[in-house]
Amino acid sequence: MAGGDKNIWIVANWKSNKTIAEALEWIGQVGPQIPKAEWLKVVVCPTFSALSEVKKAITVGNFPILVGSQDLSPFGNGAYTGEESAQNLKELISLTILGHSERRQNFAENDEIVGRKLQKANESGILPLVCVQSTQTPVPSGCGLVAYEPSFAIGTGNPDTPENADELAKLLKGSYGEGLEVLYGGSVNSGNVNNFIIQEYLSGVLVGGASLDAAEFTKICKIVGERV
Ligand code: 13P
């Protein structure tokens, strides 16, 4: 098994990309090729507009892929125009990405809002994946899964070193408990993924740009899946 008895997560963050047709084409290509293993947790996080169709295609194909969202509302159901509540999303998703640096930069998301969203996710049985940029970003209580995503590495082709990422994971586990699972994100691709998943304290990767291409993402999953 890859990395002892721990889970390895491969989370695809499509960001604001793909029409429904493009999303379904991706699922049709990637789905049948994902290695099946209890410890391998492959998640795809499409846009809200594609969530329902993506979920349906994965269910019909019986593919070993979980569906996640890239955000959710800090409120419940009610008069919150434009928001997607955890209560409504829970029939579609298993996981939600919270506190991504792009949301912090462009949408004024802060630690307090992330904490409220996390609470809503947990109340609805959705697993929150909180993005932290360094050890300075607080991990809210009730969070069991984080992604270390340094801003300099996002979309730049300039990933942090696997050793640095592992050190960060070690520090985060030291601060918040050994049970905290820590992923790395930032310019991960099929050429470097192995260097991250072999690290002692890391439990997988969060993949942006390289997840958009079906063949490249499949390659990433196969490389990780072969580490049995
Ligand atoms: P890239 O893989 O494109 O660097 O994006 C990383 C990221 O932000 C994933 O959430």
From TrEMBL:
Functional pathway: Carbohydrate biosynthesis; gluconeogenesis; Carbohydrate degradation; glycolysis; D-glyceraldehyde 3-phosphate from glycerone phosphate: step 1/1
Biological process annotations from GO: gluconeogenesis; glyceraldehyde-3-phosphate biosynthetic process; glycerol catabolic process; glycolytic process
One Gene Ontology CC term in the entry: cytosol
Cell compartments where the protein resides: Cytoplasm
Primary location: cytoplasm
Domain of life per record: Bacteria
Gene3D superfamilies xref list: Aldolase class I (3.20.20.70)
EC number in record: 5.3.1.1
Record's signal peptide: none
Catalytic activity from the UniProt record: D-glyceraldehyde 3-phosphate = dihydroxyacetone phosphate
Molecular function terms, GO-annotated: triose-phosphate isomerase activity
One Pfam family matching this protein: TIM
UniProt keywords, alphabetically: Cytoplasm, Gluconeogenesis, Glycolysis, Isomerase
Record text on subunit structure and interactions: Homodimer.
Family: Belongs to the triosephosphate isomerase family.
Record protein name field: Triosephosphate isomerase
